[in-house]
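Reviewers of the previous submission asked for a worked example of the structure-prediction workflow described in the proposal, so we include one complete record here. The input consisted solely of the amino acid sequence. No template or homolog information was supplied to the procedure at any stage.
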Amino acid sequence: MTSPAEPHVLSTTAGEISFEEYNLRLGEHAWRILHTGAILSLADEQRFLGSLPEQTRLPYGIVLWPAAIALAHEIASRPVGGMRVLELGAGTGLPGIVAASLGAQVVQTDRQEVALYVCKKNAERNGVTTIDLRAADWTTWEDRGAYDCILGSDVLYADGMHPHLRRIFDANLAPGGTILLSDPFRKESFALLEAMEADGWKVTMTKWTVGITPPPRPVGVFELTRR
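From that input alone, the workflow returned the following C-alpha cells.
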C-alpha cells in the first residue's frame, strides 16, 4: 500500500511535482519507491487518463502502475542473480531495482529524463548502486548488448510501437534468454503476443492481482522464450 512518508518534491520547468512512497515487502526483502500516484484499479486509471488534458497530466512513467508491482513480485520469485537484465520503459524503476537487489546486472532505460531521475533516486533509497541508467527511444534504438532477461511493465499499449519492440527483442535477447512482459490484459497487447507466438516464440503466463480495493486489478506476466 502507499504510505504517507516525509514529503518529496521535485522542481521542474513545468512546476513542482510531489511524490508519495510505496513500500513493498517480499519475504526478507523490502523496497521503498517514490511515485506521483498509484494507479492500482481500472477506476484509478480512468480517472488519471480522463481528469486532465494530456499536456498538463503528470508523465506516465513516474506514476506507479499495477503492471510494475506484478512484475516486481514475479522477479522476486525467480533466481535472477548474475543475470544481465534490460528494463524497457523503466518508469519508477521498481522491477529493475528488485532485480538488482537480488544480484542481477541491470540496465534501465526510459526516454523521459524525469523518469530516469526518479529511477536513480529510487535506486539510491534502496541502497542499489549498480544499475546502469540510459536514455533511450525505441524508435532510434542503438543498444547492441545481449541480455539474459528483458523486462517491460505495461509497455504494449501502443500498437505502433510493436515493430520497434520486436526489433529490440530480436537484437538484444541472448540465446536461451527470457522476456518478461507484465500487462493488465489490454486488448492492444495481445496483438504482439499472438504475433510472436505465431512466429515460433513460446508464450506462457502467470496471473497476479494488484490492489486491495475490490475488485483488484488482474495483471498477466507473460514469459516469452525462443523455441
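Residues 1-7 have pLDDT under 50 and may be disordered. We consider this example representative of the routine output the project will generate in years two and three.
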